[in-house]
Fold this protein.
Amino acid sequence: MNAADIVYLPETVAHDADIDQINEEAFGPGRFTRAAYRIRENGPHERPLSFVATYQGAVIASVRMTRVSAGPGRGLMLGPLAVRHDFKSVGIGRKLVKIALEGAEEAGFPLVFLVGDEPYYGPLGFRRIPRGQVSMPRPVDLGRLLAVEFSSGAVAKLAGIIDHEDVGTKP
Ligand SMILES: CC(C)(COP(=O)(O)OP(=O)(O)OC[C@H]1O[C@@H](n2cnc3c(N)ncnc32)[C@H](O)[C@@H]1OP(=O)(O)O)[C@@H](O)C(=O)NCCC(=O)NCCS
């Protein structure tokens, strides 16, 4: 496989079944209990800002983006990010993160947040959110709350429980 054979596309409804299968393979049934999943249950993800990687027409990796807010702070939550087993460690995950960050910035979001491993996401620009600044609707390792900001001071505005942006705006 050549990196040039991988095609990156904005997500559409047609990709849904393949994405579910990839996330099942990557995270198993435990994914439904994760803190980030709880947030995603509270509202839709942003399809035009979510991306898939395809190889010979088949979806082999996916990253989704969801609008979130916490106090006066807002942004996009990145995840789940998953790459099919046979295509791991050739740079597809990193490339999907980069494309998603570019899309988020172009769309005017001030930051991107995620729950993940700092050793993987740190080189892509993510930094730990200071412990105690934010929490999530379900228990989570606070050391795994990471964010990258596009406008100065955007991360400092996050305060309290991070949830789907629609939760804060519901009557
Ligand atoms: C994590 C994941 C998305 C990475 O995708 P990928 O396309 O294989 O990653 P890349 O090719 O961009 O990068 C590979 C490198 O990241 C490293 N890496 C992978 N997962 C890592 C992690 N959790 N922490 C630190 N490094 C990690 C690999 O060891 C590899 O290192 P190398 O380049 O020195 O060999 C993929 O392994 C996956 O789908 N994992 C299961 C689901 C998951 O954990 N998703 C992330 C949730 S936060």
User: Anything to note?
Assistant: Residues 92-106 form the longest helix (15 residues). The mean pLDDT is 95.
